[in-house]
């Protein structure tokens, strides 16, 4: 039996308390791994969330377009 091991290329962290739900990161992501959360943060905004962290390539386009600096991307 073969086992497929996926090595993460990057780690993305969205700081939900800073996110204002503008959606720029969602539009910028070439892998389409971000979406708006169904819940609200403490400020009443629906923050972005990563739905497929294993597919993140670490391009950091989401970080670059975020006006609130609410995203951190770390290449692994």
Number of domains: 1
Distance between the termini: 28 Å
**What is the rounded Rg?**
13 Å
Strand content: 15-25%
The rough form would be described as globular
Largest sheet: 2 strands, antiparallel
Largest sheet strand order: 1-4
Structural class: alpha+beta
Count of individual beta strands:
4
Order of helices and strands: EHEEHE
CATH hierarchy: architecture: 2-Layer Sandwich
What is the CATH level 1 assignment? Alpha Beta
Task: Tell me the number of helical segments per DSSP (H or I, 4 or more residues long).
Answer: 2
CATH domain topology: Alpha-Beta Plaits
Low-pLDDT regions: none
Mean pLDDT: 94
What share of the residues lie within helices?
10-25%
Describe the structure.
The protein is an alpha+beta fold and 76 residues long. It has one domain (10-75): Alpha-Beta Plaits (2-Layer Sandwich), CATH 3.30.70. The chain has helices at residues 24-28, 61-65; strands at 10-14, 34-36, 48-50, 71-75. It has a two-stranded antiparallel ribbon with strand order 1-4. The radius of gyration is 13 Å and the shape is globular.
SSE order and pairing:
Blueprint: E1 10-14, H1 24-28, E2 34-36, E3 48-50, H2 61-65, E4 71-75
List its traits.
4 strands, two-stranded antiparallel sheet, Alpha-Beta Plaits, alpha+beta, two-stranded antiparallel ribbon, 76 residues, 2 helices
Entry summary:
With 76 residues, the protein is an alpha+beta fold.
